[in-house]
């Protein structure tokens, strides 16, 4: 049996998501004080690589397995808790400041934990939103909000092709340029070369908008296990605003860049019941970088593992 879902202007929906993300990002840029240098940097500079890496770490990846019919009625909801592993960077990878010549403290949080809420809409659409708690942990304070729409495009037998459009706005605040580790050393020393005298309050803006397509199929002999794979294309809009107290005064510079990013996911969901599922994903995004000025461009991508425990709530289908 082949089932095609009703036709919707998917391109227009994705365009709206991208428009919202870019418009919000543009308004933030417009509000930046003209007294603060606002510098565009190339997409493969080390500073841009670090920003893109953390943007990639916050991309939505998992689309839940196809819901039973009674859970597709408008108003049905799903709740989940996602945990993403953030791999530790080497000292060489953390040396991204001033075009790859200054160490920055990028190894802050080892994991990203965020709740995910979804609401079933008419026409087989599902809206979702996710955000890490806006509290200070691991020396950073996130203020991120990701959102989107998804729906099955094609259902053929037990094969399903899903579409998802998504976006994110917000920032993460932390002491990246002047961390606690350098303040124990005198300004101007080899351990504190930029003359930090107090913790910095730097802000990394992590915005994006994009779409992904996922294919899934239950295993014939293990129907509760549903492997899936997806590909995604994302427009990223990232910026870094330094706010570093130095011996010469407060150093403030804003660097920004924009461009495209590809990512892919492979994983599986295990259906404990018709409502409860646990999903494990392996995520990868290739990230080009030129480590120092004039150095060749190489790939230093993000690979991480993600887990999502989800539960659906839905009423019985309406009788006609």
Radius of gyration: 22 Å
CATH architecture: Beta Barrel
Helix content: 10-25%
Report the CATH C-level class: Mainly Beta
The assembly state of the depicted protein chains is single chain
Tally of separate domains: 1
Mean pLDDT: 88
Can you tell me about this structure?
- With 320 residues, this protein is mainly β.
- The protein has helices spanning 10-31, 46-57, 91-94, 97-100, 180-183, and strands at 2-4, 38-40, 77-85, 95-96, 102-103, 111-120, 126-130, 140-156, 159-174, 202-216, 225-241, 244-246, 249-251, 254-271, 276-285, 288-289, 298-299, 302-313.
- It has a 10-stranded antiparallel β-barrel. The chain has a two-stranded antiparallel ribbon with strand order 12-13.
- Strand 14 (254-271) and strand 15 form a beta hairpin.
- The relative contact order is 0.21.
Based on the model shown, name its key terms.
320 residues, mainly beta, Lipocalin, 10-stranded antiparallel beta barrel, two-stranded antiparallel ribbon, 5 helices, 18 strands, disordered N terminus, disordered C terminus
């Amino acid at each position: 049996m082949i089932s095609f879902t009703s036709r919707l202007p998917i391109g227009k929906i994705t365009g709206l998501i991208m428009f919202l993300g870019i418009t919000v990002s543009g308004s933030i840029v417009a509000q930046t004080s003209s007294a603060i240098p606002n510098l565009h940097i190339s997409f493969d500079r080390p500073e841009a690589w670090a920003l893109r890496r953390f943007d990639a770490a916050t991309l939505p990846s998992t689309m839940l397995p196809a819901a039973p019919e009674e859970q597709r009625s408008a108003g049905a909801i799903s709740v989940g808790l996602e945990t993403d592993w953030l791999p530790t960077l080497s000292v060489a990878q953390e040396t991204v400041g001033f075009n790859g010549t200054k160490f920055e403290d990028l190894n802050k949080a080892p994991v990203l934990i965020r709740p995910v809420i979804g609401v079933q809409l008419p026409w087989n659409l599902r809206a979702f939103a996710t955000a890490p708690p806006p509290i200070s942990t691991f020396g950073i304070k996130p203020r991120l909000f990701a959102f989107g729409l998804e729906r099955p495009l094609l259902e053929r037998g037990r094969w399903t092709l899903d579409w998802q459009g998504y976006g994110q706005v917000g920032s993460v605040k932390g002491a990246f340029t002047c961390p606690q580790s350098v303040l124990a050393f005198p300004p101007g020393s080899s351990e504190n070369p930029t003359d930090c005298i107090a913790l910095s309050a730097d802000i990394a803006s992590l915005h994006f908008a994009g779409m992904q397509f996922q294919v899934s199929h239950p295993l014939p002999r293990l129907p509760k296990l549903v492997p899936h794979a997806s590909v995604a294309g994302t427009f990223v809009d990232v910026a870094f605003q330094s706010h570093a107290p130095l011996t010469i005064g407060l150093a403030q510079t804003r660097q920004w860049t924009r461009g495209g990013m590809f990512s892919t996911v492979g994983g599986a969901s295990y259906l404990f019941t018709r409502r409860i599922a646990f999903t494990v994903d392996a995520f990868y995004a290739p990230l080009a970088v030129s480590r120092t000025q004039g150095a060749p461009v190489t790939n230093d991508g993000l690979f991480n593992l993600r887990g999502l425990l989800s539960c659906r709530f839905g009423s019985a289908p309406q009788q006609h």
